[in-house]
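[09:14] KT: can someone run the structure on this one? pasting the chain below
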Amino acid sequence: MTVSENAFSRRSFLTGAVAAGSLAAIGAMAGCSPKQPGDAAGAGDANGAAAAEGAATADTQASWLGEAPAISDADCVETVECDVLVIGAGTSGYFAACAAAENGAKTLLIEKSAAGNGVRSSALGAVNSRFQQEMGEVAAIDPMEIMNDMDRYADGQVHSALYRKWALNSGEAIDWYADTIAPDGLEVQLEWNMPKGTFYKEWPTGHGTNGRDGAGYEEREPQVSECLNNYLTSFDGCEIRFSTPMRNLILEDGKVVGAYAEGEGGMIRINAAKGVVVATGGYAYNQEMYEALQPTRVSCLGTFDAFPSCTGDGIKALMWAGAKMDEVHTSLSFNRGLLRADQEVGTPYETGSDYGYFFFASQPFLRVDPHGARFHNESAPYDYVFSASSKRPVGERWWHQVWDGDWKKYVPIFHTVGCSTIYMQPEGGSDHDAFPDMLDLWIEPEMEEFVEAGLIVKADTLEELADGLGFTAEEKETFLATCARQTENYENGVDPEFGKEAFRLSAIKTPPFYASVKNCGFTLCTLDGIQVNEDLQPYGADGAPIEGVYVVGNDQGSYYAGTYPNLAAGFNAGRCATFGRMVGKMLAEK
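[09:31] RB: done, structure tokens below
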């Protein structure tokens, strides 16, 4: 068993043990556990760099895009009639199919995998759900304020009206979800207690899902899929077909009228009288496509955590139909990957499962570059460290995270939220007696396991730590000075270098001392997709919307530009759920 598999097993056990009595952040924390290295959902290249370095040339696009397969009705062994065809059984696909079905449409959901990819149970981001309303002012969000904050992250290079659509409709989507899964023993909980005084605003948007009988992440998402499978197929004429990949969309007179898909018995023509919803999950698992569109991001990664089914099928089919892709390419990436000294950053498709996935790495401890110098504000959104690292030469786009023996004291005070939550903050914010076993039973053993695996260096002195990291004499001097300065900043309560919040500063003076050998990123999913209008219809080559087809989930573009604003927990899964539900209802009512 690999290091990451050992760590994952421990995480699953512990998150399952505490889920029944926890708040939503426990769900958020567990929901970010890797399914398997190789796929990713993530934040993209830095603004500007993504457009310049990540945009595909005509030659590279021709390579990854290829040509539409030549399929005709004569190749089909079956023709299926439905009102609404939904392609992809992920968060957006499930929400779309269930909404269409419950509103009277004969709905077919197809998925290329043998089972649904489920709903991202870690967190669904929403505004004005009943859970937020019940908490009152501490969880209240002004839709206009969060819309403009999200627009700022994208430098305005998005369809801003889509943020309004999410903010005004996401609460209803979450309430429906909670009501739908409750009879099956599943529960939605809100993470509402945000830290005060952060430079980057943090939002109480995350609605996590607790599984049946305290189930951990491995069991929870399949439980949600099972629940929604049963719900969808309870409506007359509605069905799900797994192991049925879409091969191409069917256009007649410029309108999408259905799709060709490949079933176990051969090719199928599916006619959709009211419309087709494309929700195949982006392209993180398509190595050629990802490396062509986001080379800067790839150069900062150690591995992936995307669904293997996310190979760009929907995006390519829509482009064959004349749709256009975002020009700024974006991923949802985390800063939690660990590599050994002999493993290379920038080769994420080659790393496999022989790496470390360390939740702890998202904590705002000191980070230094390969030469021992601090280089950014560690309290920034997850993917900002990639943007900063990308300014270094290829092959050096990794960092060391450094902490000391007092780390258990700092983690509760840091009060990180969303997917980086290790330590739950109860009402009142800083009761250090809440869930103490998580630090002792989960994080500490994992830390020691990574030391043994050569992913973390542990030493009794900072000099020994520097030697263990392989610094030259000059780099060692820089590193020791950096550590001394961090202790000074902590004691003075101010960060004159990068302005990190005082409560997220920490000293480096108590042995033993720790540092990651090579800290790097991994991508959860891609976020750039097909450009859409406010009704989620793709634009065609002539600028007019392509009729008969709608794009949701990670195939949908016009929503991100260069970064993922992770401080609104569940923002992406929440837009997938919200837009999926809205499109499904709209098509059923046509």
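[09:33] KT: thanks! The CA atoms of residues 244 and 262 lie 5 Å apart.
[09:34] RB: yep, looked fine to me
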